[in-house]
Amino acid sequence: MKKKTDVVIIGGGVVGTSIAYNLAKNGVTDVVVVERDTLSCGSTGRCAGGVRQQWSEPSNVRLARASIDIFKRFREEMGRDIGLVEGGYLLCAHTDEEAERFKETVAMQREVGADVRIVTPEEMRDITPYLNADGMILGAYCPDDCHGDPFQTTQGYAENAKRLGVDIELHTEVTAIKKKGRRATAVVTNRGEIECNWVVNAAGGYSAEVGAMAGVDIPTKSYRHQIAVTEPIRRIQEPLIVDFCVNIYFCQTAHGSFLAGYGDDTEKPGHNVRSTWQFLQEISRRLTALVPALRDISVVRQWAGLYNMSPDAQPILGKVSDEVENFICAVGFSGHGFMLAPITGVLMAELITYGETRTLPIDGLSIKRFEGGVRSAEANVV
Ligand SMILES: Cc1cc2nc3c(=O)[nH]c(=O)nc-3n(C[C@H](O)[C@H](O)[C@H](O)COP(=O)(O)OP(=O)(O)OC[C@H]3O[C@@H](n4cnc5c(N)ncnc54)[C@H](O)[C@@H]3O)c2cc1C
């Protein structure tokens, strides 16, 4: 392992590897990614792989749109198939209040450029004939949205970063960050120290703990969310479906399995990633009520992972403290970090390479936005 480098990235998930690849692409190749376990072992390898533009906050719509462009040319740029299912996203509304909210957010999303529209229950059945749309008032449908494989995506970023000169150190845990004056000078790991000019916190569910190592208070908390996966069946559903009232999202993956999940709103924050029988029973009930054709299909796997929530359910990007001016954060993705990872990598690499972002402004996503409380929070988290 190198003893000295330009940039240390803490975290070998999709965000850390995307930043590493984009740095190397900009010519910043003296980079070490340190991952305490294996690539994708954190939230990335436990996520649903959904990629959507249907958010209530314009900044999330913009980031997601920029990411979707990158996902759609991923295979060409990276030489790796990420199992992208370009079947859109369908959001279901059950109440008048929810329907009104959908209409407002769809208008905003269209202004930002998303190809999204309101659909009737009949149109919802045309889009996805096996959905039980009884009791639904309308839907919001974006055919451009998609879902893909988070392992393949991370692997694609990692292998291309390595090809360009980045080092990836697995089974290497950061235990402390050394500082001198207003700068971080080295990360301390279980395999020795690495002196560096920049430290990037891409530690997912452990972002606050890594922030504390640099003496920075990062206002993120992690919450357990669970997923169940069925045996594969013939293709019967294209879009990823979200139902906020029922509290469920589900999709059919490229190889035919149904993947469905939710988070329990009553759970306390923490790092528990054990899956439960209660979840298995409840997800089966919710899923088969919405897609009765799945009643006799077996669940073959279940797991849990962490949503790293920020106070407004939007990521915290960039420098986080004047006290540690070379400590960059890409954290608090609040359940949408897979889909935002491609553009996050571009933006964080620009920040380090050029001292500013060029593709999109990120001032609104600075940690400073929380001074004086939360102004506007993302409402479309499931
Ligand atoms: C059930 C579930 C479903 C989800 N569905 C979606 C979805 O459909 N779409 C979407 O966009 N997002 C989804 N998400 C969110 C998404 O998974 C995350 O936002 C995203 O994976 C964050 O990536 P990351 O690289 O920041 O974090 P991670 O993948 O968690 O990577 C962080 C890495 O840092 C490492 N690490 C932590 N501390 C240290 C240390 N001290 N030293 C060294 N390494 C360290 C960890 O081991 C980990 O591998 C879902 C999440 C869950 C749990």
How would you portray this structure in words?
The protein has 382 residues and is α/β, with parallel strands linked by helices. The protein has 2 domains: 7-46 and 151-219 and 312-370, FAD/NAD(P)-binding domain; 86-144 and 221-309, D-Amino Acid Oxidase, Chain A, domain 2 (2-Layer Sandwich). The chain has helices spanning 14-25, 58-72, 74-78, 96-112, 121-127, 150-163, 207-213, 277-290, 337-354; strands at 7-10, 31-34, 50-51, 89-93, 117-119, 138-142, 146-147, 167-169, 174-180, 183-189, 192-195, 198-201, 221-230, 240-243, 248-252, 258-262, 299-309, 316-319, 327-331. Strands 5-6-4-14-15-16-13-17 form an 8-stranded mixed beta sheet, with helices on both faces. Strands 8-2-1-12-19-18 form a 6-stranded mixed beta sheet, with helices on both faces. Helix 1 runs parallel beside helix 9. The longest helix has 18 residues, at 337-354. It is globular, with a radius of gyration of 20 Å. The model has no long low-confidence stretch (mean pLDDT 97). The site of flavin-adenine dinucleotide has 40 residues, from helix 1, strand 13, strand 17 and helix 9.
